[in-house]
Amino acid sequence: MSLTHAVLALLAERRGYGYELVHRFEERIGPAWRLNPSAVYPALDQLERSGHVASAPRHSGTHRSPRIVYTATPAGLVALDAWLGATAARPEPVRAELHLRLAFAQRRHRAALTARLASHAHQCEELLAHYPRAADRQDPAGTAALLDAAILARLRGELAWLTAARATLAHGLSA
Amino acid sequence: MSLTHAVLALLAERRGYGYELVHRFEERIGPAWRLNPSAVYPALDQLERSGHVASAPRHSGTHRSPRIVYTATPAGLVALDAWLGATAARPEPVRAELHLRLAFAQRRHRAALTARLASHAHQCEELLAHYPRAADRQDPAGTAALLDAAILARLRGELAWLTAARATLAHGLSA
Questions:
Q1: Residue of B33, B84, B127 with shortest CB distance to A112
Q2: B163 and A CB contact within 8 Å
Q3: pLDDT band at residue B133, thresholds of 50, 70 and 90?
Q4: What is the ipTM score, two decimals?
Q5: Does B130 touch chain A (CB under 8 A)?
Q6: Nearby residues of B143 by Cβ (< 8 Å), 6 or more positions away
Q7: Chain B window 81-110: which residues touch A at a Cβ cutoff of 8 Å?
Q8: Is the Cβ pair A85, B33 closer than 8 Å?
C-alpha cells in the first residue's frame, strides 16, 4: 500500500510516466529502499482503478508508440492529503529474511549462516557509504536529512548487531 | 517468499495445520514480525502446488468437519536444506512507511507527522518491553538469543533516531 501512496504523491507534484516515476522515486527515497521497478506498474493500475489518477497516451517525437502519461485527479489529491494527514499508526513490523534463517538453521547450516552474516554486513557497509546524501537530491518536504538519518540509524544498529552475532557464531553456540 | 520457507521449516519439524502453524510461527519468531495470520494459507497452497508439502484431511473428536493437516515431503526437505544452506544474499531493503511520509509531507502535515513519530516511538517501546524473551520459548536452533538481539538492535536504533527526529520537527525545519 505504501508504494502506491508514494506514486500518487509523485504524480501530485507533476504528471509522469512509468519508468520516469521509478527514477523519481529512487532519487527521492534513496537506494536503501531497493525498489523493484516493476512494482510501479501495478501501483499505477490500482490508482487508476480507484480513480486517483487518470492516464492518457502521448506521442513523442522519438517514440513510435505513445507513452502513457499519468496525472493525479482531484479525488487522488484528497486521498493523498488524507494519507499524509493521518495520525493513527499501524505497528511497523521488524522483519528480515536473516531472522528466519537464524530461527530455523541447523548445525550443518552454521557455515552458510556465518557467510550470510558477513555478506549482510558488507551490504550494510556499502549502503552506509551512500549516506548522508540529502544534499544531492530534490527535497521539497525539507525532510531529506531526517530520512537519511533514519536509514543511517537502522543500518548502524544492524551493523552493531552483526558484529556481535558473527563473534557469537565464530565461538560456537551452546545448543 | 521468506514466510513460505518458514512455514516449510515448521512443517519439517513436525506436521501441522493452518492456525496451529500461525501459533508456532509467532512463538518462534516473536511479536516484532507482526505476522498477518491469513498469509499462512496462501503460503501452504504455494508449498503444496510446488510439491514441497502434502495435505490430508483429518477428523478429530471435537470438530465436525475434518482439519487439513500438512506434512513436508522429501522434495520439501531438500528445498528447505538448500534455502538454509544458501550463502548468496540478496540485499535486504530498509523500508518504512514513515520514510515515505517524511519524504512527501507538506508543511500542513507537520502536526500529523509529529504525532506519527510519537506513536511510532511508543510502539517501539512497547515491543522493547517484550525483549529479550529468548528464555521463554522453544529454541531448537540455539539462536533465539541472537534473533532477539537483532530485533533489539533495530528497535534501539529506531528509537534513537525518533528522539532526534522529534526534536528537529519540534524546532521547525529549514524548508
A1: B84
A2: no
A3: confident
A4: 0.87
A5: no
A6: A102, A103, A105, A173, A175
A7: 81, 84-106, 108-109
A8: no
8 Å CB contact between A43 and A3: yes
**Which burial class, exposed, middle or buried, applies to B21 when counting CB atoms under 10 A from its CB (0-12, 13-18, 19+)?**
buried
Report chain A residues whose CB lies below 8 A from the CB of B154: 94, 154, 157-158, 161
B135 band by pLDDT with thresholds 50, 70 and 90: low
Contacts with A153 (C-beta within 8 Å, 6 or more apart), sequence order: B157, B158, B160, B161
Tell me: pLDDT of B167 over 60: yes
How big is the CA angle at A93 (ends A105 and B132), to the nearest 5 degrees? 60
Interaxial angle between packed helices A110-128 and A144-170, expressed in degrees from 0 to 180 and rounded to the nearest 10: 150
Residue B20 confidence (pLDDT) above 90: yes
Chain A CB within 8 Å of residue B142 CB: yes
Identify the residue among A34, A119, A128, A146 best suited for mutation to test binding to B, counting B beta carbons within 10 A and taking the highest: A146
- Nearest 5°: the CA angle A11, A12, A14 is 60
What pLDDT does residue A89 have? 76
Cα B172 to Cα A28, A134, A142, A143, distances in angstroms: 21, 17, 10, 11
For residue A166, what are the contacts with CB-CB under 8 A and spacing of at least 6? A114, A117, A118, A121
Q: CA A141: distance to chain centroid?
A: 17
Residue corresponding to grid cell 507533476: A14
Max mean pLDDT range (A34-48, B63-77, B160-174): A34-48
The pLDDT of residue B174: 44
Nearest CA among B151, B145, B99, B95 for reference residue B127: B151
Q: Which residues of A touch B34 (CB under 8 A)?
A: 91-95
Number of H helices, E strands in chain A: 7, 2
- Residue B13's CB is within 10 A of a number of other CB atoms, namely 13
Tell me the whole-structure pTM to 2 decimals.
0.83
Would you call the peptide bond into A57 cis, given omega within 30 degrees of 0 as the criterion? Answer: no
3-class secondary-structure state, position B54: strand
A52-86 pLDDT, tens digit per residue, is 999 999 887 776 788 899 999 999 999 999 999 98
